[in-house]
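Hey team,

Sharing the RagB/SusD family nutrient uptake outer membrane protein run so nobody has to redo it. Sequence (504 residues) first:
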Amino acid sequence: MIMKKIYSLLLASALVFTSCSDFLDTKPQGKLTQDIFFGEEEGALMGINAIYSQMKSWDLIGFSWFGIMEVPSDNSDTGSSPADGSYARVNSLNDFTYDVYTSELNGWWTGNYKGIGFCNVALDNLDVLKDEQLKIRSIAQARFFRGFFYFNLVRTYGGVPLVTKVQNPDEYDQPCASEEAIYQQIIDDLSYAAMNLPTRDEWGIAERGRVTKGTAEGLLAKVYLFRQDYVSVKQYAGQVISRGEYNLHHNYRDLFSPDSYYSDEVMLADQYLWGSDKTRDKASEYVKWQGVRGFKGWGFSSPSESLDKAYESGDPRREATIIYDGENMEGVGVINFKDEPGVQPRANKKTMWPTTYWNANNFAKQNCHLYFLRYADVLLMYAEACNELANGESDPLVDDALAKLELVRDRARKSGDDPTVLPKITERNKAKLREIIWNERRIELAMEGHRFFDLIRADKVVPGYAEKMLKAHGKTNFNMSQHSTFYIPQKQIDISQGILKQNK
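Structure output:
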């Protein structure tokens, strides 16, 4: 079974990890025991850093990420070219004709369970760590990421196997747990992390990129948003806001610059990775799959015409998010999209930066990163919760919602040259303001992996909303009852010898 192999191999690899490392002054004699590996600071840190490294794996930032998180939404189309060997498979996710054999579904499953495996290896062994403060911080980081990986899984597949211990391969016999049980585990893990993680300032500059108290609270707010628990959304998002640990970056376009991935807006990204000499490996290949077709990249996950038309007139975020055929790039010149049938004339500009940012003159190795959570998202979650909790249009909670919404719009407004764009929102009707906030999320977080599951959760608040939005974009195959979750990969069912059951 795939998960049996994952856990046994992860444990084995963790215990021999030092064989190719120079963190010890002398070579280990004989087999390194678990107690020795995790009992010392550097061994424990290597185990935790392995979890961070998984955030840059192919299955978490490659085809599976955009194939599941963006392509099915109304913000994104398949992109690329029908002549590309991967086009038909990715397009099946775009038009909801995918099946149990679609490889991106299996990649996302294994990528997230590998991450969970790293977390469980650490959590099963960190009790022997001698430094109590380091032990608590390490456990908190591992529990945060286990919650993060399970949140990816439960939104994608619904109920999945709940594995919280490293298991003997011969003992694995778990069917899928209920969706409710998975969410409870996520909340338990993230709550522990929020209680025990340092703040960004407490970590200090040398540890930038580590998950923080605010990161855990922000992700907890998002988890509760998917549960329609708006009291808890307001509580945890409010704690992030009131602490002042994070802020909006001064300019929207610059936020995505390779120089800004330690911005005080970025709460979780794929960028945290060290080599054996503790230098940062900044490059991230996730840009390659989305780069301009015919220029530097494969052109998948193209911004849709629907997204293009959704921006308010003059919104600077449109120009910062979508690059069009014929635009100029510093150091490159005019970029012309490949002229062949089916190639869309738009690409994700958040991945497009001048040659001065390329490593070794390689577009695919530029220091451009994927943000999983940022402060603007927290502000919009808080605004949505306040609006949902408001008891009538005169409730002060509506003022609070409008104030947080204005912070996001004001930053966008100031990112351009025209101070008259993006007028303040004054709408106080709950239903109308709800859709305004949802649209603001669509625009603010465009192409960052939020839109499809935002549509799914919105449909649970306003039945029919997801179908309305997707079918308006021409995705007529979408059916909420069938497509609110994806199939469990047939490969996993086969490997489990029937223990796993298909979810629909």
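The first strand starts at residue 76 and ends at 79.

Ping me if you want the raw files.
A.
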